[in-house]
Amino acid sequence: MSGRKLAMTAFRLLQLAFVGAVAASVLFDLDHGWWWNFLPLVLAYVLITVVNRWGGGAPDAPGTAREPVEVGPPVSGRWSALNSPADRTPSHGVHAYGQTFAIDLVAEPGPGARPGFRVLWPLARRNRDFPAFGAPLLAVADATVVRARDTQRDHLSRTSLPALLYLMVLEGSVRELAGVRRVIGNHVVLDLGDGAHALYAHVRRGSLAVREGDRVAAGQVLAHCGNSGNSTEPHVHFQLMDGPDPDTARGVPFTWRGIGVPRNGEIFEAPSPTTAPA
């Protein structure tokens, strides 16, 4: 087991120890200071803080930058970028789960097509209200499918203040405790060769068009965009990493052929597979 995998396992065990300590105090009226119950939780978050800041370098040269891997875009049509590595790294604030150079994409087919954030109401929206839901996810290169999961449900959006607080305070913590699969939701991982793997997260339930072991061609449809896992709304989460397991992998920088790396809020047009450059 790698050091990173061991650290993430210890983090989840410490969280469980906290829950157990609180339950034991309530059930058995243990005679000790209440702060002892929080010691495992404090240790857990000290550990995860270290893990989240650990590992931006390339595997063969820790601490040095790796050249971006050029691949095709994972979508076609009109999209905008969120949490882009063009603006900062780690793009999502952490190195954990190989997210150093991850990017989020939301569909922008036209003005007003995508529902905006609301302070109070509606608390949540149906996934079909978002134009990204059901959009095809495309292979960014000729590759081999090494992971493919699509059994988790697509939940409602978290695009109001109460729903977002619920996600950050309760749901997100439970998903962290349950492990990386519950964070990234349904997903596909491609082995691109040369130590690069592509991860597509938050895939729509039941939408997989490929299986583990399949060889796929650039531009081939792999699955469809969903809203599974730790997600506020249907969107595409894409990243390159140096291994197939997000729990142990480190992020790898990418650039999309003909597009580059769009910045936060930048709207771009990705060509369809039939018109994409060879």
Automatic annotation (TrEMBL):
One of its GO terms (molecular function) is hydrolase activity. It is an enzyme of class 3 (hydrolase). Residues 171-242 form the M23ase beta-sheet core domain. Its EC number is 3.4.-.-. It comes from the Bacteria. The chain crosses the membrane at residues 34-51. Keywords: Hydrolase, Membrane, Transmembrane, Transmembrane helix. SUPFAM superfamilies: Duplicated hybrid motif (SSF51261). PANTHER family: MUREIN HYDROLASE ACTIVATOR ENVC, PEPTIDASE-RELATED. This is M23 family metallopeptidase. The lineage of its organism: Bacteria, Bacillati, Actinomycetota, Actinomycetes, Kitasatosporales.
